[in-house]
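Record type: monomer structure entry
Structure origin: computed from sequence
Chain ID: A
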Amino acid sequence: MLQEGAHGKWTVSSSDESTEENSDNEKPSTSSLLHAACGRASGPQYPCSEARKAAHKRKASPLKFSDKSFPAETRLAEKQRPSQEGLGWCLSSSDEEPEDQEKQAHKETVKEEKNDAPKEHPLNFHKDNELSENQKAEECCEAPSEAQDTWDLLNGGNPFRFFLTKVRGIKQNYNSGALHIKDILSPLFGTLLSSAQFNYCIDVEWLVRQYPQEFRKKPLLIVHGEKRESKAELLAQARPYENISFCQAKLDIAFGTHHTKMMLLLYEEGLRVVIHTSNLIAEDWHQKTQGIWISPLYPRLPRGPTDSSGESETNFKSDLISYLMAYNSPTLKEWIDKIQEHDLSETRVYLLGSTPGRYQGIDKEKWGHLRLRKLLKEHASSVPAQESWPLVGQFSSIGSMGVDESKWLCSEFQESLVATGSSVTTLLKYGVPIHLVYPTVDNVRQSLEGYPAGGSLPYSIQTAQKQLWLHSYFHKWSAEVSGRSHAMPHIKTYMRPSPDFQKIAWFLVTSANLSKAAWGALEKNGTQLMIRSYELGVLFLPSAFGLDKGYFHVKGKLLSESNDPATSFPVPYDLPPEQYGSKECESGNIFCTRRSGGREPSAANLLLI
């Protein structure tokens, strides 16, 4: 739907979005269990955002238009989709932050046993003959990689241990270095004893099916941020599974979400940590661009370790324990003890997290963008003429950042991202360029999923109209380098490339979108950092990989005959990014969502989610 405004036309989708300026997130579904049962065919059977529910509904029951009703370009996505036969995985990126979070901060018990679920629940999650078409398609597409290929991925020529998820609908060769969740949970990675899954949007039944048959009854802890009805739905999903327990993350600050995406996998052989960007739902592992970091297999320490035993040069172990302690959960204390018993010294990345709270003094530097600032100051090397090295941020959701760039983006946030051993203030005087990568409407329309991919790209029209200045920073999504130009990004990345985009000073993959809720905002004249949400990512710095020049080379196209050094970093999208043109900025091609007010969206809007 096109809306006229003072600065041109806007493309608007029909998903529910909050008008609150302080949030980039959408409200998780809070429909009742009975309503969920009655509406089984029209929506996903797991708590999720309204935008994602609307996209799911339209995929299940698309409107049919005659060729005469709309111009040919509205059907371009379907025409351009390649045949699914003989092709590989399609990446799914549905990790949006809920933007309509309720205002009251409601404290609830952190651990929830499955017997706390309602006594009666009308859904039967185990009737194979009632599987939806999406589930049946998912089962056909979920076969894990060949065992040897997966083993080579983990132990071969990938020093960064950074992977993309498989995408169905692209050339198979572009999936040769990618993983599906079934690969990660495969016995090839270890003999599983127990696991913990930290996430935002979770389909319990689907998640259980991703584990090999022999591991499906092993203890599984799900760490989530759901409340009230959506929490009851989550607990009800797990009712048939006696091995599943829950830990509810405290969200005491309004509009916060539990957005972290992490797996803790305990094996007979050791421990593994996986930090990624995908929700635990089928769509996110199907046709979206997602990122994964997989740790080495951490061996168990000899008996009687000290607190500093098994620490890496990046302090990953202590930082991971500090992050888990921030949940203040007795349940997670068990996992902290397990981590303490293992040797994490081979880790070469830095952990970067956000946890809800208001932090002062030295505590400010533990989380969010101030944590990134501290890491870059202490461990990033200066390079000649670094003031001309731009910043690139790529994300799938956008929050409110104020009436102009000086309020947050080009002040405190930019200061953190340009920090090195040199003076931040000096660099800022040069106005370091900022390139923000966010899909256009054409990107979405021509994607493998078509317009439903927009359900994972929440950007409120109300917020967008209050920060028109931001759109001059926008750049299109293009990923020919990884074969994923048509797999919409749910991955979030930030980096500092050289002016010619052949080198990068650092690279971050994270769950954090472009918002103050995720990264934090300074208050009280800069003496306090306020963060609303849980987020987690890993930072790659050249010094941690034995490179003394202060940068990584950027790896070339996946299928090209390049002579890239082994330490070239595989940036998953094209550099330099292409800036939005006047068409995108002024003619309705900024992909936004609007609040539907609880009404069914009109036919015109159905094309634009």
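Annotation 1: The two ends are 10 Å apart (CA to CA).
Annotation 2: DSSP finds 18 helices and 22 strands in the chain.
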